[in-house]
Design brief:
This protein is an all-alpha fold. The protein has 2 domains: 110 residues, no CATH class; 140 residues, no CATH class. Helix 8 crosses helix 9. The longest helix is centred in the middle third of the chain and has 25 residues. The radius of gyration is 18 Å and the shape is globular. The mean pLDDT is 94.
């Protein structure tokens, strides 16, 4: 029941990831849904209230809950946490990246701008890189692949971050170190280079196959970053998006070809 609850949460809150997760076998889905659901819950904890103290309390609840998975304590009653505990027990993955996600979500509670581009990339590594590494790891990705997986996640994260910029600005955040169109285009080109390099590294190590459903979550990355590079104003005006037809067509081709 815990896995079913996780799948339902992902279906509602992260439909694009849900669609890619459905390309996995049922056994693989049972490992992916808890990872994706935990990511959603951590994000929700930070944004559930406009009061920073309440957000910190919610994040601390998840921090303490994850700590219970490695200290031998009884795991608190929550369907997502129970499902994650099962995945950790089955696969032996570290909960460290989950703690890094929680630490990164502290940014959501503050209004401090990123000091530079490196700080933004570090933030994206913790949020999106961590999810990519963990989702591929539970499907059997060996440790030597993790740096390339994190880079793929960072590139994917930048594309998703660009899409969220108008909403973050409306909430009083400063999501970009430099919001000029030239700086956005330059950042998009960095993301494209990272995307290419990560895919080359994964191909060189002969990876795809069993971890493909995790990799497939990045299927929109190249197209979105190309749009941002060529029309950076779309990042600021909220029009950075692919048509539903293009999204689904691209996903269908990549899901049957092994691309991502």
């Amino acid at each position: 029941m815990s896995v079913a609850a996780c799948a339902d949460l992902v279906r509602q809150a992260d439909p694009d990831r849900f669609v890619t997760g459905q390309t996995a076998t049922p056994a693989a889905q049972a490992k992916l849904w808890p990872i994706y659901a935990l990511n959603i819950e951590i994000a929700r904890a930070a944004w559930a209230s406009q009061t920073p103290l309440l957000g910190q309390m919610r994040l601390q609840w998840w921090e303490d809950g994850l700590a219970e998975l490695t200290t031998g304590q009884a795991v608190r009653a929550h369907p997502v946490l129970a499902a994650v505990a099962d995945v950790v027990a089955q696969t032996g993955i570290s909960v460290g990246p989950f703690h890094a996600m929680i630490a990164a979500r502290q940014w959501d509670l503050a209004c401090d701008p990123f000091t530079d581009v490196a700080a933004l990339w570090q933030h994206l590594a913790a949020l999106y890189g961590g999810v990519m590494v963990q989702s591929a790891a539970v499907l059997g990705a060996p440790k030597p692949l993790w740096p390339a997986l994190e880079d793929l996640g960072r590139a994917m994260g930048l594309a998703q971050w660009f899409c969220a910029v108008p909403s973050l600005l409306a909430l009083g955040r400063a999501p970009l170190p430099n919001p000029s169109f030239a700086a956005i285009a330059q950042l998009a080109h960095q993301g494209l280079a990272l995307h290419r390099a990560s895919k080359r590294a994964l191909r060189a190590m002969g990876q795809g196959g069993q971890i493909h459903p995790a990799l497939l979550a990045s299927w929109q990355t190249k197209a979105l970053l190309n749009l941002a590079a060529n029309a950076p104003e779309r990042v600021m005006n909220g029009t950075l998006a692919l048509s539903e037809f293009r999204k689904r067509g691209s996903l269908w081709v990549k899901s049957i070809s092994g691309a991502y």
